[in-house]
């Protein structure tokens, strides 16, 4: 873009990228208001994963949920949240807000998840110190492990963990890509142009 005289410097490119992230954030927030951001159901497994903020160079935790269709390897829809703590009072309300009642939830054995069966979820756990696929239930966390690694790589590659605000924007951008961008008939670029046109109407 600098060679084509669209941007004069890397600082200009950074400002442009910031504005585009704002466009994507506004679109995701509008989607949440209008139709919600629900995952799970009869045909999906939901995987939960949290990671300490130190991994992201911040004090907050990133808590992620991933809805994956059974017997399919299609791209999953992530829900990514920044949380102060990872206790039951912090994580369970997020799960109840984003995951349909009756869904199959697979996670590690973190004690914060123990109340999920009482809320109407079918909760299965995997003991990572012993195996990644439970030999009795068949529950496995390989989907969320791969997705989590990919999400971290995307944020790290774009240096999106430098500040809490920047991290929040990049997590929202990942959600926009999977929930909206890849669903558009012309792909993420087509969806981005559509959202820019809606944001900056003449």
Textual characterization of the structure:
By secondary structure, the protein is of the alpha/beta class. The protein has a domain at 37-159: Ribonuclease H-like superfamily/Ribonuclease H (Nucleotidyltransferase, domain 5), CATH 3.30.420. It contains 5 helices and 5 strands. The protein has helices at 10-35, 88-98, 142-157, 164-179, 187-199, and strands at residues 44-51, 61-69, 77-83, 104-107, 122-125. The chain has a 5-stranded mixed β-sheet with strand order 3-2-1-4-5, sandwiched between helices. A hairpin with a 7-residue loop joins strand 2 (61-69) and strand 3 (77-83). The longest helix has 26 residues, at 10-35. The chain is elongated. The mean pLDDT is 85.
Rg is 18 Å
CATH-level-2 architecture of the domain at 37-159: 2-Layer Sandwich
- Principal-axis shape equals elongated
**CATH homologous superfamily grouping of the domain at 37-159:** Ribonuclease H-like superfamily/Ribonuclease H
In helices, the fraction of residues equals 40-55%
Let me know the number of strands: 5
Q: How many helix segments?
A: 5
Strands across the major sheet, in which order? 3-2-1-4-5
Reading off the top of the CATH hierarchy, the class of the domain at 37-159 is best stated as: Alpha Beta
How far apart the termini lie comes to 24 Å
> Structural class given helices, strands, pairing?
alpha/beta
Instruction: Classify the beta-strand content into a percent band.
Output: 15-25%
CATH topology of the domain at 37-159: Nucleotidyltransferase, domain 5
Largest sheet: 5 strands, mixed
Q: What are the segments in which pLDDT stays under 50 over at least 5 consecutive residues?
A: none
Mean model confidence by pLDDT: 85
The H/E string reads HEEEHEEHHH
């Amino acid at each position: 873009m600098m060679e084509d005289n669209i941007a004069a410097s890397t600082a200009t490119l950074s400002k442009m990228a910031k504005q585009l992230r704002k466009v994507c954030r506004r679109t995701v927030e509008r989607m949440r208001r209008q139709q919600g951001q629900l995952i799970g159901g009869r045909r999906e497994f939901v995987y939960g994963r949290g990671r300490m903020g130190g991994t992201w160079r911040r004090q907050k935790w990133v808590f992620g949920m991933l809805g994956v269709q059974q017997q399919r390897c299609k791209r999953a829809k992530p829900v990514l949240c920044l949380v102060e703590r990872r206790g039951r009072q912090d994580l369970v309300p997020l799960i109840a807000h984003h995951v349909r009642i009756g869904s199959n939830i697979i996670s590690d054995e973190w004690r914060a998840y123990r109340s999920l069966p009482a809320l109407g979820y079918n909760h299965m756990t995997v003991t990572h110190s012993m195996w990644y696929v439970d030999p009795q239930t068949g529950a496995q966390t390989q989907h969320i492990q791969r997705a989590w690694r990919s999400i971290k790589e995307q944020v790290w590659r774009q240096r999106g963990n430098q500040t809490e605000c920047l991290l929040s924007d990049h997590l929202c951008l990942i959600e926009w890509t999977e929930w909206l961008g890849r669903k558009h008939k012309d792909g993420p670029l087509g969806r981005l142009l559509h959202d820019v046109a809606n944001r900056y109407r003449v």
